[in-house]
Predict the 3D structure of the following.
Amino acid sequence: MIGGVMIVVALAYLGVLFAIAYYGDWRAERGRSIINNPYVYALSMGVYCTAWTYYGSVGRAASSGLGFLPIYIGPTLIAVLWWFVLRKMVRISRVNRITTIADFMASRYGKSTSLGGLVTVIAVVGIVPYISLQLDAVSASFTLLWQHPQPVGAPSVTRSGLDTALWVTLGMAAFAVLFGTRHLDVTEHHEGLVAAIAFESIVKLAAFLTVGVFVSFVLFGGPADLFGQAQQDPALAGLLTLNDATLDYGQWAWLTGLSMLAILFLPRQFQMAVLENMDEQHIRKASWLFPLYLLVINLFVLPIALAGLITFRNQPMDADLYVLGLPLMAGSELLALFVFIGGLSAATSMVIVDTVALSTMVSNDLMMPLLLQLRILRPGERGDYGGVLLAIRRVAIVVIMLLGYVYFRVTDDAASLVSIGLISFAAVAQFAPAFLGGIYWKGGTRAGALAGLISGFLVWAYTLPLATLHSISGAPDAFLLNGPWGIAWLRPYNLFGLTGMDPVAHALFWSLFANIAAYVGVSLLTRPTVLEQGQAARFVDVFNYATNSDAVFLWRGTATVQALRSLLERFLGVARTERLLDDYAHRRGVDWAATQQADAELVQHAERMLAGAMGAASARVAIASVVQEERLSMDEVLRILDETSQVRAYSRQLESRTQQLEQKSRELEAATTELRAANERLQELDRLKDDFISTVTHELRTPLTSIRAFSEILHDNPTLDPERRMRFLAIILKESERLTRLINQVLDLAKLESGAAEWNTTEVNMTTLIGEAITASGGMAAEKGVQISTELEAEPSLTVWADRDRIMQVMLNLLSNAVKFCPTEGGRVLVSAARQGRWLVVRVADNGQGITREDQKVIFDKFRQGGDQRRGRPQGTGLGLPISAQIIDHFGGKLWVESTPGEGATFIFTLPLPADDKP
Amino acid sequence: MSRDVRHQWLVVIFGLGCLLFSFPLLALFNHAALIFGVPLSVLYVFAAWLVVIGLTFLSHERRN
Amino acid sequence: MPGKVLIVDDEANIVISLEFLMEQAGYTVDVARTGEEAIDKIDRFHPDLVLLDVMLPGVNGFDILQRIRQRFTLHQMAVIMLTAKGREVEVTKGLALGANAYITKPFSTRDLLAEVRRYLEPGEEHETLAN
């Protein structure tokens, strides 16, 4: 009595799913997520493998050999690009708190309620055949097991007296309602759901591999044995290659392309891969792990199909059920039970995730906007609308499941599982133009998206499901053969007389053709609204906005905090609202008690929080009900956008221009390089000159300021006391001297630098010169109590060829610097001169505070002065050292400084001595 | 290899994958002849599949 | 009520002249010779008006101005920038950063006093020199 056991085991299995889901949620609430790792993420994507894969692939392989594979090759190929495409979808969805694929589209095209509704309708209508496929497979496998051990025959749904499919439908609907609508906010991750789906992926893989190994190695002598037998059999040999009887290359390519789109846009894939993604880095692992999962689960498909064809050669066994039929035939009931559970897990995972996704779309993107716009719900009034949302979702699940059942009953079992599934694939492929256009092309408009989706959807409906309904019981009717009213070019499978393509490829070609043409054409002909442009920028350039706070606020209007708060409370509940607003206040440093008026950012924030519960389009309608909004003019929007993104775009442009230029200049080689170098030198000189003039101006203005200020003070205050009078006059004199000195030195330096200085070169005895310099500086040194001593080689050979006055100028400068930086008490300066090889080396050492390493580098620059900056400016013009360096340089020597901070500084210069044999 | 370069590799792998799974190459290996007991066509498709997965793995997981 | 004026400049003689002018006009005066000292005095002395030189050793005048404007409005603490670099760019920058007025060295003592009075003597007009 395997039937009774089967029901118990099935219920127990569903119980385990609940347990896992609750455990997942429980862990999530405690902040210890079990799904926040790339392996669970990749496994949860296994929701792609439904009863279609589990039962249908073998059926497909039994008729078309390798023809079952493009459906898995497509996802593998697109997974390579996930790092670009999927990551962008994930980022956009997180930033905009997207809840469904309909929400995504509505949000991109200006939070359009009509577009969200349309996508919802297409998704629901498109997925219904897919759901019917699951019901078909589960009820057929159920019936097969239930009737066992009666002779295996084509299973009929009503033979046992009860409509198995209806019971399965109701059972699964109840499960989906209980499982999928436990929470309200749909942007927070469904951790329990993801955990359960990942678990189901493991179960179906394990079950399928077990049956694969059992069939290949226990019933037969391994895959090689099966392939060998198949090759000998003329009826089977054809399945081992691609050919006209199985699948031609054209079909292969179409199906590969179609499944690439399906893996991105099926509502359940969008749910798992985009909305439930916890970390963008997980995409890395998933993009090879998920294809690997697909490869492994398909390893035994062909062997099982061949085994089924060989075993059930002359029996009326549906190839879609070989997976279950083979173990039953071999009398292995326990394995058959495991296989049934595997199939159940494949079907339930699909049904759960798709109904969660679709019911959320129905409530958020279809019903809620309708209820709000028809004023059946008024957000301004009191009441809890969270409950309304949940109720809508539950009803939607039941209705969608029943639609699946109706479709199943109407089409009956004429079509194989795979051909039903492909109809759904073609439906969701209609999202591709507006979706991909929406994230890569800012020019796409709402009108374009609507036009594209409507045209594509109508063509799809006409060429696929409608046509399917006309081929009930396998025989095509007049509608299919001759077209409506006998118009041949309207034949659903041969639109405009196109022949030579199978129905799916044919439908896909015409629907996408109409879709893309309408989308691009209408987009180019219509002008987007301000909001659409803003959203387009947010979506297309999502990686340019580092975080949410970086977003552009294209909004201006007024709203009170109170009104926003009560609106949020109505949809999210009091406690959640409180928490969200507190978080916001904490982050932004807002004090609610003192804030009456909500700013653009808060309104935007409230809208995003609402969007998390009810979708972008609904949230916008709800917010609009409590906010007085001003329309922004195009100019204002451009200005706002300019401020934020333009700068980046411009710098990127500059960067690329520079690269282009560099490319070109490389081609022009040496000539250009030289020219550019020369140009740079000129520019550098120009800049230096500019800096120099600016600094000179500053240096001249400073003493002038004191002179003018004190002159005016003296002029305006004739009765000033004599003491202060004298002091101020002294300052004026001192600053005048400083001004004179400065002007002289600037002129001097200019002369030196331009080479216009006159040099009077004679024989100079350095010993004598140093002595005179020290005498000249004596007054200054005595004033400060500084003692100057010398260490001179008293040889006549300390004679150089130079300009006596200039060298004297250097010596005086070095000495006055040394005295200036000596401590006020116990200051000592030591001057030494000695011969070192062919050089005369003169040192002027002080015992001051020394010069830091940084200052040592700059003191020879014009107007750069050393010293402790905290004690104010040292006296001097900042030109003495540069001038001295120029002079020494002129005579072929060098001037530099050696110093250890804290231990004084030593200025050293060298001059070349004439060769021993005097000239 | 820098991250950017590795990401450019992904585009190359995608192109290679499309090539491996399309007409001329697919037809080249479309024979029922058994290699190690497995038809050449089946062996080729699964091997090509594994190559694409392996290359994707390398470009994401290989550090430095 | 006479106000408090903080003079920030590193030129000793200019400081002496400004100190004299402000004290003569009846204001309480304090002096800072470096950027760090100025920041310190702003907190402790709490001036009503700051005469701020741009080229200071250490923290420069614009930095100090920015710090002041993070905490005080144009009315709470007036700032008159003094600079010997009379470039258009610098004037614009100073005013953009929140200086009440901008005076180029060498200045006329009467103009300077008039400017200071505008911010410190109530009842008079309260507009900045901007534009």
